[in-house]
Amino acid sequence: MEWVILAIVILAVIVAAALVWRALQRKKHQVARERASELRAHAAGNALDEQEQEARARAKAAEAERVRAEADQLEAHAAKEQTAFDQTRAQRENSVREADRLDPDVDHRSSEYSPDLDGDPQDQSGSHRSGSSSVGPGQPLPHQAGPEHAAPHQSPRPTDPADPVDPPTDPRY
Q: Does 66 fall in a domain?
């Protein structure tokens, strides 16, 4: 009978230990549930922050795209304006070159010739400009020197169809 009482006591201790262990497990699970609930509440609060951040990020991305589109339009407009400027300048240079070609006081064949695009055919001293040559007004240009100034083996005047011997008679000039 002693063995039976001993077995019942051991069994009671085991049952009590199981009940205590079970109670501790329930408490541990309850604490874990409460902590999980707190983390979920915090995550839900962060989700609202994330949505606000995402909305701000989308707004900034849309603004950046709008600014890029505006910059592209401005760049295209600037390119058109530059093209128009280049065309106008080229037309003006062509007109000045044509005028210089017709002007007997301008040596447009000189290697140092460049058209005066400032639109002022008079230089600082009031004399008519003559390209980069040092020939004064009223003096013949080197290619316009008469036969008396030409060397015996040179022709008195170059024969270039682009440089007529006589001034043009076309009324457009």
A: yes
Instruction: Give the SS3 label for residue 137.
Output: coil
In the predicted model, is pLDDT for residue 43 greater than 60?
yes
C-alpha dihedral sign at 151, 153, 159, 164: positive
Query: Which residue range forms the structural domain that includes residue 51?
Result: 9-74
- CA dist 139 and 135 (Å) reads 6
Q: Return the closest-CA partner of residue 113 out of 131, 134, 137, 127.
A: 131
Round to whole Å and give the CA distance between 91 and 165: 26
Q: Nearest 10 degrees: CA dihedral of 26, 31, 32, 36? A: 140
> What is the structure's pLDDT at 144?
45
Q: In this structure, how many other beta carbons lie within 10 angstroms of the beta carbon of residue 147?
A: 9
Is this prediction's pTM over 0.70?
no
The tens digit of pLDDT for each residue in 15-36 reads: 999 999 999 999 999 999 999 9
The number of distinct structural domains making up the chain is 1
- 3-state SS record for 94-133: HHHHHHHHHCCCCCCCCCCCCCCCCCCCECCCCCECECEC
